[in-house]
Design goal:
The structure is a homodimer.
Chain A: H1 13-29, H2 37-49, H3 55-62, H4 66-78, E1 82-85, E2 94-97, H5 101-134, H6 140-172, H7 175-178
Antiparallel strand pairs in A: 1-2
Helix pairs in contact in A: 1-2, 2-4, 3-4, 5-6
Chain A binds a DNA duplex (30 and 30 nucleotides) through helix 4.
Chain lengths: ~190, ~190
DNA sequence: TAATTTATACAGTTCAAACTGTACAAATTA
DNA sequence: TAATTTGTACAGTTTGAACTGTATAAATTA
């Protein structure tokens, strides 16, 4: 199939310009996913190429050092938006962009939401018994504040319970029963 | 009601320690929302206080400069997780944390998702006609690559259409029909 | 075995963001 | 009016993140 080098040919000039419009837009919005512009640009570049890419190709395409590409590629790998692939006879590492946005959506947000739940629930479970004890204090002031805190914690837990359900529904695909994927053309 | 100063009294020592466990956890996970740890810590502090807070109180509570608090409070205001409130006879600006996590969830993600849609769809609408034209090129190679790009763009648009529906459903509260909020105790 | 290729660890540089203190403008009080 | 209070603009400092080039480890080839 198409080798990366060919895209540098002059006849792809217009196509590359059109692609760059979108690559820049994608790179710009990737901050929502905790990625830098550079990292976003690499992903978008790989997304359009559609083929596995080596670190050297990436360095050439973005005009950056191979060391940078090694780090950036690892970031994308950790975020699960690219895969490391293997090809017979190719000694270099190959990375390929995940092209299914529904999948990357699920990976990204579920991972983040789950981390949020875990970290915060862990802290709540540590703090709650202490506050519960204080809510039985003899000091009326302390009691009042502790009870108000307990209510806040209950609300937080209620929210995380809901978030858990949301994550499950996104990961299982149940969400698409409620909010269906638009049909493909034809 | 409870004035901030009182919380510095020794009898609230245990309570403050318990709160700090959660404040630190919340501050740590706020990076998911594009906020720094400091910004997250301020929000969490205000969340627990439950009362409107002045810049001076914030500076005292976090041991940071008033200038920092002014900037950080503005950030929280822009992210819509705190409100500027007014109290009779109080000359200072007052900020109060939004305590409804469901609301902040909706604000945060819908805002982000909408920005992503807008920026990317704008770029797609600019690039697509160019690529469409190239897909009718005489050069078979160019044609092939252009057509592959068009398919990618269609998939992207399909995804953004879905995201739009998701945003609508979160903003309208329709989502809670499918994934209900857990019931409050009692 | 030695020679070559590839990825990455590491050290150094550059740049941007976070924070501070000062100075000032706007509003309030006297 | 002048004196005081409050929030923020601005300039300077510090810190950390992104990136580069070099050196090295690991793997492959000869």
């Amino acid at each position: 199939m198409l080798q990366y080098k060919e895209l540098e040919s002059d006849k792809y000039k217009d196509l590359n310009e059109a692609r760059d419009l979108i690559i820049n837009a994608m790179a710009e919005t990737m901050d929502l996913y905790g990625l830098t512009t550079s990292t976003g640009r690499l992903y978008a570049t790989m997304f359009f190429l559609g083929e596995p890419m080596t670190l050297d190709q990436m360095a050439g395409a973005l005009g950056m050092s191979k060391t940078s590409m090694s780090n950036t590629a690892r970031t994308l790998l950790e975020k699960k938006v690219v895969d490391k692939v293997w090809q017979k006879g190719v000694r270099k590492d190959l990375y390929q962009a995940e092209e299914d946005f529904f999948k990357t959506f699920a990976e990204f947000f579920c991972h983040g939401w789950r981390r949020e739940m875990e970290v915060n629930l862990k802290a709540i479970n540590k703090a709650e018994p202490i506050i519960k004890e204080l809510s039985e204090s003899d000091d009326e002031e302390v009691k009042k504040v502790a009870n108000s805190d307990l209510e806040k914690l209950d609300n937080a837990k209620r929210y995380y319970l809901w978030l858990e359900r949301l994550v499950e529904s996104v990961e299982s695909g149940e969400i698409y029963k409620y909010i269906p994927k638009p049909k493909r053309k034809e």
